[in-house]
Design brief:
Shape: globular
Radius of gyration: 21 Å
Largest sheet: 9 strands, mixed
Number of helices: 13
Distance between the termini: 42 Å
Strand content: 25-35%
Structural class: alpha+beta
Number of strands: 24
Length: about 425
């Protein structure tokens, strides 16, 4: 099979790497890919950046399946476009993608189908939102309605923080339109978990759980990032939690997908909060998380291509996904200054004797040399029989990766972090 994998981040490198392990796959085109995919077995980078370009390439090169990594093309309707042309593509249609494309739509969907979630109000008027925050119980959560690269959520401890978030989102428009509409949401105290899942529109199969570490500094301090590290499985996701998640989140979501007639064949990612009052859904993503993908796929024993094909054939109810009985730990190495301003273009040196897998994100290949090309540069993902052994391996190996200004958290997967 010939595949087209759309995207350029760590998630897409992990997807391409995992798919390259299938003996059914002989060629993977990464559009545009990154420095890691350029060196990956069976992979070739191609410089395409629009739905029209992806479509032309898929037709001309007789691509068997296109796998969409990021959310933006899904929200744009790439799946609808490809399907009209009779091409196989893995991802939800435009209507399904709106579960991530609009937080207000997602919250309305949750309410309509009885998905357990936090109380909220939506606003498009800055003055009304400013009035509302005067009477809120703090802390509150303020979210940009549209896509904001994982950075459109702020936890506000008091009114002045909320006022600043409203000004940034609605007046200064720091998310270029995505924050003109906002959600003000009840703050839930607890532990977050990421549950990536696959669906064919009739069945949802959860992958193993994971735990993302969003904030930049150790001890979960500082601003949110796209994710600084992940462990899998999530130690807080007990059988009881998964049972409750299935009953109050997964099953009503599936009911909603069916009743709204979404053409949803792809990934549905549940961001949940485990609280003393039970399991709540924070948000949907309509694609794999980054860096959750790196930690989760590293433990997948089944052939990922087989799983995708069973979804495309609407046959997931007969699928049993196998996982290694191990733990994984993924540590993100970022550029100094991220998530604010940072420099790029530094040489990356990686020693040969790593036990872990290096997954590239903000990396380019220039004259056969890997160079930094983004905020989150790469990640090192290791596995072990225990979380501790996976952590030790990952931290041992990340010391063998060098570039100017390298920064990473030292507490990924530690208890209470």
């Amino acid at each position: 099979m010939k595949l087209l994998v759309i995207g350029s981040g760590g998630r897409e490198h992990a997807i391409a790497w995992k798919l390259s392990k299938s003996n059914k796959v002989h060629k993977i085109y990464c559009a545009p890919g990154n420095g890691g995919t350029a060196l990956e077995e069976k992979c070739t980078n191609i410089n395409l950046n629009s739905v029209d370009e992806y479509l032309s390439f898929a037709k001309e090169n007789k691509i068997d399946v296109t796998v969409v990594g990021p959310e933006a093309p899904l929200v744009e309707g790439i799946v609808d476009t490809f399907k009209k042309e009779g091409l196989k593509i893995f991802g939800p249609d435009k209507k399904g993608a709106f579960l991530e494309g609009s937080k207000a739509f997602a919250k309305e969907f949750m309410k309509k189908y009885g998905v357990k979630t936090a109380e909220y109000e939506a606003f498009t008027d800055f003055k009304k939102a400013s009035e509302y925050i005067k009477n809120c119980a703090y802390p509150v959560v303020i979210k940009a309605d549209g896509l904001a690269a994982g950075k459109g959520v702020v936890i506000c401890q008091e009114e002045k923080d909320a006022q600043k978030a409203l000004e940034d989102f609605m007046v200064k428009d720091i998310f270029k339109g995505s924050g003109k509409k906002i959600i003000i949401e009840e703050f839930l105290q607890g532990v977050e978990a990421s549950i990536l899942s696959i669906t064919d529109g009739e069945t949802i199969i959860p992958f193993i759980s994971s735990k993302d570490h969003k904030q930049i500094y150790d001890g979960d301090k500082g601003p949110n990032t796209g994710g600084m590290g992940v462990i899998a499985p999530n130690p807080y996701c007990s059988d009881e939690v998964i049972k409750e998640f299935t009953k109050y989140v997964l099953e009503p979501t599936l009911k909603g997908i069916r009743q709204e007639h979404m053409d949803y064949i792809g990934i549905i990612f549940f961001g949940i909060m485990i609280t003393k009052k039970g399991v709540y859904l924070l948000e949907y993503n309509v694609r794999m998380g980054d860096p959750e993908t790196q930690a989760v796929l590293y433990l997948m024993e089944s052939d990922f291509m087989d799983i995708i094909m069973e979804a495309l054939n609407k046959n997931l109810s007969n699928m049993n996904i196998k996982w290694e009985n191990k733990h994984s730990c993924c540590i993100v190495a970022a550029s100094e200054g991220y998530p604010s301003s940072y420099k790029k273009g530094f040489t990356i040196e990686i020693e040969d004797n790593l036990e872990s897998k290096v997954i590239a994100a903000g990396v380019k290949l220039q004259d056969n040399q890997l160079m930094t090309n983004g905020g989150r540069v790469l990640c090192v993902v290791a596995k072990g029989d225990s979380l501790e052994s996976a952590r030790e391996k990952a931290y041992r190996d990340i010391e063998k990766v060098k570039f100017k200004g390298i920064y990473y958290r030292k507490d990924i997967g530690k208890a209470n972090s």
